Each structure stands twice: as C-alpha cells, then as structure tokens.
C-alpha cells in the first residue's frame, strides 16, 4: 500500500515517549487475543536488525491496521511506552510495505562470515585422523552446503539467533573444546573437534531466513539433531570405520545432554560430555551477553536490571555495562 525504502528509525533508537510515523519494521510474532471485556486485540513483536520490541494493537486501532504475518515488513505508526520494566509499542496504524531493504531487518553476527569460516578451517586443519578429515571435506566441499552453513542462525530466538550465528556458535564450541583438551589431554581431539564442527549441522535445514528467521516445516517435524545425524551418516565416505562413526553420531545425538532437551541419548563418553558442556556454555553466555547489551541499547539506561529472561530464568544486572557504554 505504501512505500518507504528508507528506514530512519531502528529499534535501538527508541525511547519511552517517542512517537513514530510510518516506519518499516518486520513482524516477528502476531497473535489475536480477546480481552476480559470481550474485545479483540493483537499481541505483536516487531523487529529490525538492531533488535525487537513487543507491542499491542488495541481494538480501537484495529481498523487502521492490516493483518500482520510473521516475516512481512509493515509501515508502522505508534507510541513507545514502558510496561513492566521494558519498552513496548502501542501501534496506531500498520500497512504492508511494498519495498524495503532486506538488510535493514535481518540481524547478522558481529564477525564477517568469511573470516569466521577461515577460523573454522584452521580447526579442521588440526584434525589428523584421515576418516574425519575426509568426512569434513566431503561435507564442506559442497558449495551450496558451505554457503548455507555460513549464513545459518543457530536458533530461532534463544541464542545466536542471527545470520552467521551457527558459525559463531560452532567456533565457540571449538575454542571451548580446545581449552578443555589442554586440561584433559587424553580426550580424543579429532573426535571432539569433528563432533563440535558437526554437532548442529542439521540447523542448516531447520531454519529459513529472509527478513527474519523462521523454522522450516522440515525443521518443525524432524529437528536438527535428527536431520544432522541423518545427513552425516549418509554422506560418510565408504569404508569409514563403523566404530568411529558410531562415536561421532553419539556426539551429535547426545549434545543436548538430557532427553527433555531433545537428545535421544545421554552423553556416554568423555568427549560427549565435553561437547555438551561447551555447547551449553556457548549458548548461555551468548544469551546473557546479547540480552544485556540489547537492553542497554533500547532505552532502559535508567534501569539497573533487565526484564526477566525466560531461558536464563532471571533478570540481569545491567548497571556495570551501562557505565562502560557511557565512557
Ligand atoms: Fe543443538
Ligand atoms: Fe549447539
């Protein structure tokens, strides 16, 4: 309906009391709810490459709003207010944007994907076992797979949920695994590194990315643990030692550590336990880090604590980092 190629206002710039007019944002979630007095309203999350914000469309404003769909970009007008320690937008009008710059909306990793991929190849070069080397070469020689791996996120919302996030998370796991190896040198380095590189490989099939990250139908039905192990076990070169393949598959299958977190089996080797812990350390530190800096950036500078973080099950202390940003 309306055009606005030039995005002037980003989530990070918004402050309590701001009024915005016709600015493009991508819809991250959109739910129609009914209030106690039986009026319909919309619970919405909007976003761009700098972050996301919750919002409401109250029943009186619905007439000025086209129905939203996740992943679509809308020109939005509204007011920013504060609700239980975090900013939210009361949307007064919303129309689908015809044209926009995709790069304004998709969050990307801080580091360049090519630079991160070259760090990944440095880890691959440390692997001596011929079977594991062959397997990794077979997987990453496929240009399509390589490019998808470079762009993929590691999650939908929880951690490393931006383009390049999978590569960043994989490097985190490798660096952590390498430091554990220094302390526990009898661990099998080649198995551990290959497992760290491939543990979330199935995520390249789990997500679709455009203006936002969504879970693919296949991802919803099968999940990355199954898709990764299926792909890797099928592509393993002929003659690959079966015992070695079993151990590698064990790392992939058990890396979530607990059955209730999606692993069909618990870690049963030292390397599997090390990978599970490296995976968890990377995920949790990334959550805390990004949530802290995201909340400093979106107008909460006068708050010492962040809103509640569902996955960390706590709020976070922002004050020391606000001071650092001011310097
Ligand atoms: Fe995983
Ligand atoms: Fe992971």
UniProtKB/TrEMBL annotation:
What's a BP term from Gene Ontology annotated to this protein?
A: rRNA 3'-end processing
For whether the record's keyword set contains Hydrolase, the answer is yes
What Pfam families does the database record attribute to this sequence? HD
Q: What is this protein called?
A: HD-superfamily hydrolase
Please provide the record's keywords in A-Z order.
Answer: Hydrolase
| Domain of life where this protein originates | Bacteria
Q: Gene3D superfamilies, per this entry?
A: Hypothetical protein af1432, Nucleic acid-binding proteins
| CDD domains reported in the protein's UniProt record | HDc, YhaM_OBF_like
Which residue ranges does the record assign to the HD domain? 167-279
Q: Per UniProt, what is one GO molecular function of this protein?
A: hydrolase activity
């Amino acid at each position: 309906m309306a055009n606005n190629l030039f995005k002037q206002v980003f989530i990070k710039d918004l402050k309590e009391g701001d009024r915005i007019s016709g600015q493009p944002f991508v819809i991250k979630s959109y739910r129609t709810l009914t209030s106690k007095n039986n009026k319909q309203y919309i619970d919405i999350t909007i976003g761009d490459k700098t972050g996301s914000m919750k919002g409401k469309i109250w029943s009186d404003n619905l007439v000025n709003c086209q129905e939203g769909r996740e992943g679509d970009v809308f020109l939005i007008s509204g007011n920013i207010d504060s609700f239980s320690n975090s900013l939210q937008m009361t949307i007064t009008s919303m129309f689908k944007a015809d044209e926009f710059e995709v790069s304004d909306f998709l969050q990307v990793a801080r580091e360049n994907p090519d630079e991160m991929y070259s760090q990944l190849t440095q880890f691959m070069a440390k692997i001596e076992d011929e079977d594991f080397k062959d397997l990794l070469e077979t997987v990453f020689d496929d240009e399509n797979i390589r490019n998808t791996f470079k762009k993929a996120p590691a999650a939908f919302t929880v951690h490393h949920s931006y383009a390049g996030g999978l590569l960043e998370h994989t490097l985190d796991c490798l660096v952590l695994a390498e430091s554990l190896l220094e302390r526990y040198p009898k661990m099998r380095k080649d198995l551990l590194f290959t497992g760290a590189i491939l543990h979330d490989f199935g995520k390249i099939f789990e997500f679709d990315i455009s203006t936002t990250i969504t879970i693919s139908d296949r991802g919803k039905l099968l999940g990355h643990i199954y898709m990764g192990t299926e792909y890797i076990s099928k592509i393993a070169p002929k003659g690959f030692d079966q015992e070695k393949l079993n151990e590698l598959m064990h790392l992939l299958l058990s890396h979530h550590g607990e059955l209730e977190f999606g692993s069909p089996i618990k870690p049963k080797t030292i390397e599997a336990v090390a990978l599970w812990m490296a995976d968890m350390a990377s995920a949790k530190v990334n959550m805390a880090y990004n949530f802290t800096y995201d909340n400093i950036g979106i107008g909460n500078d006068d708050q010492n604590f962040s809103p509640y973080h569902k996955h960390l099950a706590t709020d976070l202390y922002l004050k020391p980092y606000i001071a650092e940003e001011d310097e």
